[in-house]
Design brief:
The complex is a heterodimer of chains A (309) and B (311). With 309 residues, chain A is mainly α. Chain A is 79% helix and 0% strand. The longest helix of chain B has 58 residues, at 2-59. The chains are: A mainly alpha (309), B mainly alpha (311). At the A-B interface, helix 2, helix 4, helix 5, helix 6 and helix 7 of A face helix 1, helix 3, helix 4, helix 5 and helix 6 of B.
Chain lengths: 309, 311
């Protein structure tokens, strides 16, 4: 009752103020609405900048490099002559690097994640590890290159080998894998764990047979995405001394190697214009590998999800 | 008969248990070793940087290093100067340019995705931004050098082939997805009730976004800016390819400059003798870079923890 009365009173008051203020209020509402529309357009445009840039970038690269991509391009080594140049050495170097990095990252990444999620007590030590991991994720990749150069290449005497590169890359992408694996493990419902314990399973049996299979899609997706970051990295491998002009493919993990991004970088810097077109061709191969890895991640996730469902 | 069954049962049980308990005891230790790898990585990074940098400072006085305005490390030995200020100014020039591009665009994208975008459009836009984030930096560098620079030079003809402007624009584009997705995460964790209260008071979408959601998510948004800037400081390939290799103490973005990261690449690519002053200078520059990014990362963590609004 009293609220109604107050409203009536207010209405009476506003009537006294004549229609002038009402008109002003309507104008103000209109203005605020217009402002909202303008901002909506501005925000949409800003978001589209990223989309447009991606489109232009892909179009520019495909248009420049597509004519160079053929079977010869995949089977030739680098050369002084543009028409004889190819990506055989860096392509195989990149594949070797990923092949060695993948198991190392998986073991150390998932191991750390299991430790932190399942075993570590909530004390200063596990907090230290966590803080350390989140800080490592922010260290520039080139600094990992310095570490690889000092410890693996010189300290352990591994030189400019595939193994040096793979160890460096492992340390670089480890934080990403750990975070992804922890999230995946954390998402396992506790009822599943308890059911396993209730059946008399030990802690490790529960982890190995219940927690890991359940979280595997998330772990694999995270690992593959981290590896696709590794395959595009250039700077740390330049630091450890992966050389540009390699005229052979690695035969084992102690051989010298080069990778696609380094080859692309060195072609980009050459004065002849054809080499920039070849660089674009190399980029097409690199992006094709990345696309394949992402598709693989999605495929694995779907496959495992069906099984779990 | 009953007795034997019982006794064998017990003994089998016991045997299994000892095998299992030892395995159960070893596993956590193995996993702890995995976890220690990340600690050892940090220790390794800090130790290598500190040791070699300390030895660098025996050749070059510390004061000269941080106040010198000439960096001519790769010149012949008699003309070598190791003043890091030109490399720092180059890095900051590119970083500031990148921030000018990425902060508004990243924040606006985040507001659009979190507050305005219809669900279906958001599900298309987010993967596209993720693809943008997954493009290797060497590809961005190529793009800066062969596309952005020629385009910019049609507007500013006097600008050189290598310039800070093109590199900073592309570095900015590279960090947009990072700022957008971290800011959007912060905004979408703002409870719906607060938004709805503001709508009920007659606010427009813009007012809800700018006066309610952004202030509530401010700690996360600022942290995303700081992390983006830290990423720009450590970015290597774009600046190596597009910004040039001439260390210069300047704030003019149309000039060719050199960043700390680009110097490290240039030195590592060249023929430098192991153990010499130039070799050690890579570590000294790396140390400076590491300190810069570490401060930014700690700052981001501090902001997001200290100023977090709890609901």
């Amino acid at each position: 009752m009293s609220a109604e009365e107050a409203m009536i009173q207010q209405k009476g008051q506003s009537n006294v103020d004549s229609t002038d203020t009402e008109q002003k209020g309507a104008d103000r509402v209109q203005f605020r609405r217009m402002l909202n529309h303008v901002a909506h357009g501005l925000f949409l445009l800003s978001t589209l900048v990223g989309v447009v840039v991606l489109g232009v970038l892909l179009y520019d690269i495909i248009q420049t490099g597509w004519k160079w991509v053929d079977a010869d391009f995949l089977n030739n080594f680098a050369s002084r002559f543009p028409e004889k140049s190819g990506v055989k050495a860096p392509l195989w170097g990149s594949l070797w690097l990923i092949g060695v990095t993948a198991p190392l990252t998986f073991i150390f990444g998932v191991g750390t994640a299991i430790y932190l999620e399942e075993y570590a007590k909530k004390n200063w030590f596990s907090r230290l590890i966590q803080l350390n991991i989140s800080n490592l994720a922010g260290v520039p990749s080139i600094v990992f290159g310095i570490l690889g150069l000092t410890i693996f290449a010189r300290g352990w005497g591994l030189g400019q080998s595939v193994l040096t590169g793979a160890l460096t890359m492992t340390l670089l992408i480890l934080p990403i894998v750990i975070v992804a694996a922890r999230e995946a493990i954390d998402s396992v419902p506790s009822s599943l764990r308890q059911a396993s314990y209730a059946m008399g399973a030990t802690r490790w049996q529960t982890i190995y047979k219940v927690v890991l299979p359940y979280s595997m899609p998330g772990i694999l997706t995270g690992t593959i995405l981290a590896l696709s970051r590794a395959i595009g990295e250039t700077a740390p491998l330049i630091m450890v001394g992966a050389v540009t002009f390699v005229y052979f493919t690695p035969g084992n993990i102690f051989d010298a190697f080069t990778v696609l991004p380094i080859q692309i970088y060195s072609w980009t810097g050459l004065p002849k214009e054809e080499f920039q077109e070849i660089a674009a061709g190399g980029i097409i191969i690199l992006l094709a590998i990345l696309l394949t890895m992402n598709a693989l991640a999605i495929f694995l996730r779907n496959k495992y999800q069906q099984r779990n469902g | 008969m009953l007795k034997t069954v019982e006794s064998t049962g017990v003994s089998r049980f016991k045997k299994k248990r000892t095998w299992r308990t030892s395995w159960e005891g070893i596993i956590p230790k193995l996993l702890l070793l995995c976890a220690l790898v990340s600690i050892l990585t940090t220790v390794g990074i800090v130790l290598t940087l500190v040791i070699e940098t300390a030895s660098f400072f025996q050749d070059v006085p510390f004061i000269e290093f941080i106040t010198g305005t000439d960096w001519t490390a790769l010149f012949s030995e008699s003309q070598q100067e190791f003043g890091i200020l030109p490399l720092i100014s180059g890095t900051l020039l590119v970083t500031m340019g990148a921030a000018v591009v990425a902060i508004p665009l990243g924040l606006f994208s985040a507001i659009y995705l979190s507050e305005y975008a219809p669900d279906r459009l958001r599900r298309t836009l987010k993967p596209i931004l993720e693809i943008l984030a997954g493009i290797p930096t060497v590809v961005y560098g190529f793009f800066a050098f062969t596309f952005v620079t020629p385009v910019l030079r049609t507007f500013i003809p006097e600008m050189g082939v290598f310039n800070a402007l093109s590199a900073s624009v592309v570095v900015g584009i590279m960090i947009i997805p990072m700022i957008a997705s971290l800011s959007e995460d912060a905004m979408s964790s703002v409870p719906r009730g607060i938004r709805e209260a503001a709508y009920a008071m007659g606010s427009t979408r813009l007012e809800v976004s700018l006066k309610v959601v952004v202030p509530a998510a401010l700690s996360g948004i600022i942290a995303s800016f700081v992390l983006g800037i830290s990423r720009a400081i450590g970015e290597t390939m774009i600046v190596t390819i597009a910004a040039g290799a001439t260390p210069k103490l300047t704030l003019d973005p149309t000039e060719s400059i050199q960043t700390m990261t680009a110097y490290m690449v240039q030195a590592a690519m060249g023929d430098i003798s192991y153990g010499g002053t130039v070799y050690k200078s890579i570590y000294a520059v790396g140390m400076t870079l590491f300190v810069f990014t570490l401060i930014m990362n700690l700052l981001a963590q501090y902001i997001s923890r200290r100023f977090k609004e709890e609901y």
